Amino acid sequence: MSNRESTILIVDDNLIGLDSFFNHLYEFGFKLVVTESGSESIQQLNHIHQTKDILPNLILLDVKMINHENFEVCRYLKSQAEFKDIPIIFMTAPGDLASKLRGFEMGASDYLVKPIELTEAMSRIQTHLTLRQLQTNLQDNVKEQTAELESEIVELKRYQSEWDEFLQSLNEKHAELQRITETLIKLQEIQLEQLLNSVGDDVNSQINYLQENLQEVQTILGQIEWQPSKIMMKLSVDTADVTEQEGIVALSRRELEVLRLILSGKNSQEIGRKLSLSENTIRTYRYRIMQKTHTNNTADLVKLVLKHKLFE
Q1: What pLDDT is stored for residue 292 in this prediction?
Q2: Which residue in 52, 76, 83, 195 has a CA-CA distance of 20 to 30 Å to 178?
């Protein structure tokens, strides 16, 4: 800050002998505001503050006023938030140690001895104006950083609130997903149980059918074992009649052998060993037999044989 931007408030009820000092301050570019009593200086400062004008940058306060009221002025100014940071320099008489000490107790920053020595006075004034400017800059920086920090805190709180809401929503969705999962598992268990019951009923039905017709099946197996030519003839002779009903065509001798073993309850691996054929070959014979007889399983084959009495 340049001197032309600095204002000095001078409080002194005896301005005699200060003309040279004032002129020197003017020459350095300072603006001067002069009052002749402590109460007038307080009124002046309050008016400046209320009008939001620029407060003085420094106060020169004479301690040798009537009733020593300037000590109280100093104490008052240092107790007010709007004025407490303005540096105050006491002007006192030579050898007045008591006034100097009391001035420091009241919050003064420095002192000048009358008559004013100009070079010393300008040095002290410039020093305290510089310190005051540094203090102001520091306070401004602190205020700015504090404002930024408070803004960041508000933003962090907002993010925290949004995060908490997100977590709550996530927990609710997780709980809902667990409920849905448990429901699906129960439904799957019910469906599986129903499916097993259905399959079990179908298997039991096939088993019961085979058991009920066991004797006839055994007779058929015997015929297949001992009379392949008769079976072949029967299938061949009755093909036209049966085809109209079931779409059956004549089976080869090998297919008849495979059919006999299928009806006896053997699997593809066992049939392959019995006939010295590979398991894949037996599967092929199975497929052909199912195609020619339009059946899907062993029980259907037995039903078909019994129905048309193909092996009598």
Answers
A1: 87
A2: 195
| DSSP 8-state code for residue 116 | P
CA 163 – CA 78 distance, rounded (Å): 47
Domains and CATH numbers, the chain: 3-147 (3.40.50.2300), 213-308 (1.10.10.10)
Beta strands 58-62; 7-11: pairing state: parallel
Look at the block and give the residue holding tokens 């085979």: 210
Average pLDDT over residues 281-309: 83
Q: How many residues does the chain have?
A: 312
Q: Is the peptide bond before 228 cis (omega within 30 degrees of 0)?
A: no
Give the integer Cα–Cα distance in Å for 244 and 248. 8
Q: What is the pTM of this model?
A: 0.49
For residue 231, the tally of other CB atoms under 10 A from its CB is: 22
- Give yes or no for a contact between 100 and 92, defined as CB atoms under 8 angstroms apart: yes
- The three-class DSSP label of residue 1 is coil
pLDDT value, residue 207? 64
* Phi and psi, residue 88, nearest 5°: -120, 130
